[in-house]
Design brief:
Two copies of one chain form a homodimer. Chain A contains seven helices and two strands. Chain A is mostly helical. Chain A has a two-stranded antiparallel sheet. In chain A, helix 1 crosses helix 2, helix 1 packs across helix 3 and helix 2 crosses helix 3. Chains A and B meet through helix 1, helix 4 and helix 6 of A and helix 1, helix 4 and helix 6 of B. The structure holds iron/sulfur cluster (2 copies). The first copy, chain A, binds a DNA duplex through helix 3.
DNA sequence: AGGAGACCGGACAGAAAAGGTCCTGTTGAA
DNA sequence: TTCAACAGGACCTTTTCTGTCCGGTCTCCT
């Protein structure tokens, strides 16, 4: 393989999409999210921690605690979520860190990867949680 | 990380691009390619084997042997090369094997990944070895 | 005040993939 | 015949992925 989304990334988007289905501010517990989205709960705990640390979600501790979106669904993109849990997206190392490759100065391949990355980001930046969960349930 | 080209994929494109810089049919040895492109030779051996098995390169055994492109440079794309060594490209599992995910029937996220994949393939299919190595050296 | 419910944080661990290495065999041209 | 060069497979090390576990902490509810 190679060049594929991690399980963690997929889970993160699914979890956030689930939260976006509720009215703004609604809190759902780890257990609820895991059950609803078929995500192992102890793994999901780690993923949600990343999302909280990245400021995409907020957590409520104690009884009746859980997680909620930190901002309106329309303002959170697929890219935001994936980068929060998997780190920066770079189809090839040199796209984000050109200094790592001595050839990057005049490399046609480099330019190709930059175009590919730009096209990918176009999609990832344009899809928000509102796109993924259009109608909040009452 | 996650979602990044493998080292093997990068090496493969570099090796093929090197071959494309010579007149059609020119044979270069493993050693030559490895030295010119800074690729560990024993690893490169494996990569070239994959390329030969996939029909993108041909090999010549015995003294003065080596590797050459199997077809004109303009007919070999980035995608061909990467898929030959890393297997099929799928930004998310469900893009190529939707039956693996029970949700794939009506999943907005799935559609998003399909768009992203299509954009990526547009670039990868449009870049050929002729693009990467415009002028064969005499 | 005292549970009980729920997240926090870090250590740990098994499995898989990435990234190579090595060795023995086979080929083919000089 | 010799020897340069590829073929193929076994093996190895390191890193990343995909989780698990547990003690600690916080907060609501009674
Ligand atoms: S694409 Fe070019 S610049 Fe980027 S890593 Fe490969 S050789 Fe270096
Ligand atoms: S994007 Fe949708 S279809 Fe694809 S794996 Fe995730 S949930 Fe399944």
């Amino acid at each position: 393989m190679g060049l594929q989304l991690t399980r963690g990334g997929e889970y993160a988007v699914r979890a956030m999409t689930y939260l976006a289905r509720f009215p703004e501010g609604h809190v759902a517990s780890l257990r609820d999210i895991g059950r609803a989205q078929d995500i192992p709960e102890s793994f999901l705990a780690k993923i949600l921690q990343s999302l909280v640390r990245s400021g995409l979600a907020v957590s409520q501790r104690g009884a009746h605690g859980g997680f909620a979106l930190a901002r309106p669904a329309a303002g959170v993109t697929m890219r935001d979520i994936i980068e929060a849990v998997d780190g920066p997206i770079a189809l090839n190392q040199c796209v984000l860190w050109p200094e790592d490759c001595s050839r990057s100065g005049d490399c046609e391949l480099h330019k190709a990867w930059q175009r590919a990355q730009a096209q990918l980001m176009d999609v990832l930046d344009s899809v928000t949680l509102r796109t993924l969960a259009p109608q909040p349930v009452a």
